[in-house]
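Contributing: when you submit paired examples, paste them exactly as shown. First protein:
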Amino acid sequence: MKLKKILLSISALILFSMTAAQATVGVGIKLDSHTLDSNVSDDIDSNGTIDSRKGFEDKVTAASIFIEKNIETGFGSVALGVNYIPFDVDIDKRSVSQSSLKAKGDGAASSGTNSAEGTVSDHFTIYVQPGMNVGSNLVYLSFGLSFADVEGKSNSISSTNITETKDLDGTMLGIGIKRESDAGAFVKLEYSQTDYDKVSWKTSNSTTGHADLDNQILSVAVGKNF
């Protein structure tokens, strides 16, 4: 969290301290359709060998807000900005049946249901969008770094339940098109993919779990340049 705040603070200072002969500041809101792919795996005895894998897909619609500085170039413009999702995004609860031989000699062998769920919060993306004018539109590429918190909850029949928050960092790549009116109002359509670093956790019975998240986002944004 500290590193995230430092990077965001530095980016904001750079963003608003830059001067250019032709530059505007844009603010707006985005409506994002997320397709979140979660690939989870576990290493039961933490020996480096994966014992099981499973993939899930969650679809979520969320709103975000952004501020960006647009610098005019000879062929189009370059935008430097920060996007923030002020709402939590939930990863649906998943359950799986399991038989446990834990303490079998004492007659404590059991069967039941394990479950896991997660919540992504405080999601920021720092981005740069170089664009080229094509007719009345600006076609641009989008490159960014994303930072968030992910809180995972796991209920297990063979170990203690855990609730743990991890830093979630990722890289974002995208492409979009922007249309701006003479008054400075604009609309952006964008498709992007964010590849997050793998996060891990360890239970009380030395089982290590891993989650690898990828996010595909289709968004529409409206805003105003000043």
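Second protein:
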Amino acid sequence: QSLDRVMARTQAKGATVIIMNPRTGEILAMASRPGFDPNRFYRYGAGEWKNRAVSIIYEPGSTFKSVVAAAALQEKVVAVNERFVDKGYVVVSGRRIKNWNDDSYGTVSLTDVIKNSINTVFVQIGLRLGADRLNNYARAFGFGQATDIGLPGEEEGLLFNTKDMRDSDVATMAIGQSIAVTPLQLLTAVAAIANDGVLLKPYVIKEIYNADGTLAEATPTQRVRQVISPQTAKVLSGLLEKVIAEGGGKRAAVKGYRVAGKTGTAERLKETGSGYEAGRYIASFV
């Protein structure tokens, strides 16, 4: 119902929402729009049959910066108390990359960088990590492969081949562009940050009962791997709280609770796959 209200208000072409317990991998809710009546599926087009939570891939934009920050903190290429200089733009391999709002923030802390989603500094951080480590952490967090949740039509997403990456590719990947993910992949990755750095396999079916009420089958929590240390996860969670408390995610605040998250806006790729659609965006929050 919430998703339907948002669709009506924003006139979005499509949307999905997923809620997951990061301690177990259990999917508590999943909705996708546009939808269809499965009893009369033949009245709808193939695009409406898709479960967008698992069957679309898109450039995640700034939501992916939470993964980049996790890798950088774990590899100690940045320090929590470090200061960075933002001139408002950075040039990498002849490509000029600006901040989302065209502003220059000057000398800033890591907290400010994450809170304000400063592209130029994330480019610097990505270049410190380099192609190898950036791609390795992306794969460790579950990108570039299906989660194997057991739902039909799940996409694997797209990552660079490390050996083909130039500095400009590292730079754009560090701000969540030039790669493609599914909403479920992104959720599962960020849930690992919330789960002391442990990536879990998501699942939909919790339990199956026999007709007499006895338990026939239960899905156990399946640990995939420890991606980052519990300490790194705790530090990063604290930084991501600032996004809600002071940054662009203030509308996600819930009175009486500590909430961590990350906003993201990405340009929409053309259907042909070449270039972007002017004035068309994919907005996301995790």
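If you have annotations for the second protein, write them as plain sentences, like these:
The chain has a mean pLDDT of 94.
The first strand starts at residue 15 and ends at 20.
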